[in-house]
Structure formats: structure tokens, C-alpha cells
Amino acid sequence: MTIAATGAVGGNGLYRQVMSATPTSASTGLSNWLNQGTAVVSDSAVGLCIDAPPVGTAVNLVGRFKTVPTPPYTIRALVSVTRNSNSYNGLLFGWYDGTAKLQLMSFQTLNGGANFLAVSRFSNTSTVVGTDFQSASNSFAQPIWLQLQDDGTTVSFAFSQDGANFLPIYSVAKASGYLGASGYSNVILLVDPRGTLHTLGTLMSWTQS
Which of 2, 39, 91, 98 is most buried (CB neighbours < 10 A)? Predict the structure, then answer.
């Protein structure tokens, strides 16, 4: 009798068909800092990790970005946040125009309470100018998949708890979008380290198609 070393499908991991190899700064292309300050990035055993020091009660986003691929494209990121928060600490994923403005999907706590999802507009890393979508405080579980799509004319945000089936939460035509027709030019992953302790944002899977 012979037993295969690879085992059955389930033995290779439930999420293997939607998981990438362990992401790094090099493999994702997220090699440029925005508002680094004293934050650091590391390629850990589970993925790319941004460690941002506390900033008190004000918004002060810290992140890594890269130039977007040629549309159409879909980028899916499996993320988690390590925090002990009485504020709005979290992780954000979206687009940066390369100058100042950002349009981002956030996975944050609600003033230290349950997790919520939102899509917001920022005039810079410390100023929110509007919110396009905000969920209820649904205590979304970690880790969570966040998705960006650009089909050439429309950009959209979606999320998933299983990595295969995504729920859209906001879309807009690029020509009328906050960043303008040519402003959806960089994809960016950020941490919001509000509070009194470090906030860790970890990217655990990165797929781009």
C-alpha cells in the first residue's frame, strides 16, 4: 500500500487556492514610504508588517505604496491589525494620487469598540474630507480580505471573509472620482496608529490579476 505524501486537498490548507506566497516589500512592490516618520517595515514570517508608533488622538496615516498596474486589474490583500485601542486604530487600503490626496477603504475600530469598514476621502495623511461609505459596527473578524478593482473606467472597493466571494461596498467612475481621471495612479497600504500604543498592520496575502 502506498500513501501519497501530499495528502488530500484539505490537507494542503483550506485557503490555499486564494492565498499567495508570503508577501514581502519586494514581491508586492510596496517599497515607497508615505509619511514614514519613525515607522518601520519588516518582512516577517507571515508577511509584510508596518509598525507605526502612537500619535495620540489625531489622524496621522503611515504607509507604503507603488505604481498601479495597467488596467484592468484586481488586487486582493489579506490583512490583520494588532492593536490595543481606545481610539480608531486600523489599517487602510486604496489609492494615492502621488501628491497628497487619497481614497481609502479602512478596517478600523469604532473608538476602541467593534470593527467597521469605511471608504473615505483624504486631502492628505492627516485630514479626512468626506466618507463615501460606512458600515455598521459589525465586528468583522480578522484577518479580512480587502479588494481594489480598476476596469479602466470605474474603480471599486470590496471585502471578503473567505477570500473567494467578495461583497462590493463602493464604486465610482474614475472621471468623476475624488482623485480624478489620472489620480488613481498608486495603490497604497497604510496604518492609522491613533492611541497610546504601537499599531501593527500585517499584509498576509497579496494577489494581483
Answer: 91
Residue-wise pLDDT for 119-162, tens only, equals 999 999 999 999 999 999 999 999 999 999 999 999 999 999 99
Distance CA 186, CA 170 (A): 18
Q: What is the mean pLDDT of the chain?
A: 93
Helices (H) and strands (E) in the chain, counts: 1, 14
Say if CB 49 and CB 200 are below 8 A apart: yes
Specify burial of residue 112 (Cβ count, 10 A radius: 0-12, 13-18, 19+).
middle
Q: What residue segments make up the domains of the chain, in order of their start?
A: 33-208
Banded pLDDT at 8 (limits 50, 70, 90): very low
Q: With contact defined as beta carbons under 8 Å apart, do 92 and 50 qualify?
A: no
Number of Cβ within a 10 Å radius of residue 121: 18
pLDDT per residue as tens digits for the range 188-200: 999 999 888 899 9
Q: How many CB atoms within 10 Å of residue 143?
A: 19
The class level of CATH for 33-208 reads: mainly beta
> How many other C-beta atoms lie within 10 A of the C-beta of residue 80?
18
Residue among 81, 49, 82 nearest 63 (CA)? 49
